[in-house]
């Protein structure tokens, strides 16, 4: 009965390891697909945004990181800041400035990041160019609202949630994707810090997946070792070695040899 329990424990442990291994394999596949997408799109030639997004909510995930050309005017009064962004080794702010295209649609442009000031707000934000501009930007999908429900002060956002931006800019705003600025023409004298590019590191997911498989095998090996040890102990209890418990019989003591001179003396006395 005890060995059956051992086997069930090993089986349950193996199932858990298999689940975690499959999860890590899935994450590795997702990461590999993202790296392949970056390699295919990141350095591609820019195309007009009209060739990629026709409406306001029809962005194809396969176009992520693709450079596009935006022509229009920045809406300076609608500028927003996204707080708590990991840039430059600090909790930075990313600067969002909507840009109105010639066809009336509005694209959210992430111009880069600025560090927080003494009171956790930027001391200064470089201004976007005024008038007609041509912007090269890489497309990214928007982010979800934070599950924690955290909010942000006026003029700021907790995440890059495009429908929240559209509440300020109107229904013409493209809510399926935004653009990370690569360049602006005319170029301003100062611009926010450039965002960190995507990494091509595949991460540890594949090695973790293999480790979980090895853990499952080790679980069975360990249970097998325990069962084998218990079997050996039971056999020793059933068949004890009696010879080890017996003491050897003492050897008979040889009579001591009398001294020859003493024997001769006894013979003379008897005579």
TrEMBL record:
Biased composition (Acidic residues): 238-247, 262-271
Stretches that traverse the bilayer: 208-227
Source organism (scientific name): Microbacterium sediminis
Membrane topology designation: Multi-pass membrane protein
InterPro entries linked: Surf1/Shy1, Surf1/Surf4
Cellular-component GO terms for this entry: plasma membrane
Protein's recorded name: SURF1-like protein
Keywords: Cell membrane, Membrane, Transmembrane, Transmembrane helix
Cited Pfam families: SURF1
CDD domains attached to this UniProt entry: SURF1
Major localisation: membrane
Top-rank lineage group of the source organism: Bacteria
Family: Belongs to the SURF1 family.
Compartment(s) where it occurs, according to its Swiss-Prot or TrEMBL record: Cell membrane; Membrane
UniProt region (Disordered), positions on chain: 234-271
């Amino acid at each position: 009965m005890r060995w059956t329990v051992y086997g069930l424990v090993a089986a349950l442990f193996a199932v858990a390891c298999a689940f975690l291994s499959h999860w890590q394999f899935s994450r590795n596949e997702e990461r590999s697909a993202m790296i392949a997408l970056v390699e295919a799109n990141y350095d591609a030639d820019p195309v007009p945004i009209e060739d990629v997004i026709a409406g306001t909510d029809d962005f194809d995930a396969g176009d992520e990181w693709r450079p596009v050309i935006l022509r229009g005017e920045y809406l300076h009064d609608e500028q927003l800041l996204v707080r708590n962004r990991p840039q430059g080794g600090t909790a930075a702010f990313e600067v969002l400035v909507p840009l109105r295209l010639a066809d009336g649609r509005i694209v959210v442009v992430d111009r880069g990041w600025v560090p927080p000031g003494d009171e956790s707000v930027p001391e200064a934000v470089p201004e976007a160019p005024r008038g007609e501009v041509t912007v090269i930007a890489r497309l990214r999908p928007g982010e979800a609202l934070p599950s924690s429900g955290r909010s942000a002060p006026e003029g700021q956002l907790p995440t890059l949630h495009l429908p929240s931006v559209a509440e300020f800019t109107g229904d013409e705003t493209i809510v399926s994707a935004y653009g990370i600025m690569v360049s602006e023409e005319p170029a301003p004298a100062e611009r926010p810090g450039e965002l960190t590019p995507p990494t091509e590191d595949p991460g540890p997911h594949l090695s973790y997946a293999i480790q979980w498989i090895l853990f499952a095998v080790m679980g069975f090996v360990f249970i097998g070792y325990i069962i084998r040890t218990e079997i050996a102990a039971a056999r020793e209890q059933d068949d004890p070695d009696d010879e080890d418990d017996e003491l050897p019989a003492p050897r008979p003591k040889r009579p001591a040899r009398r001294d020859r001179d003493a024997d001769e003396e006894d013979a003379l006395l008897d005579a």
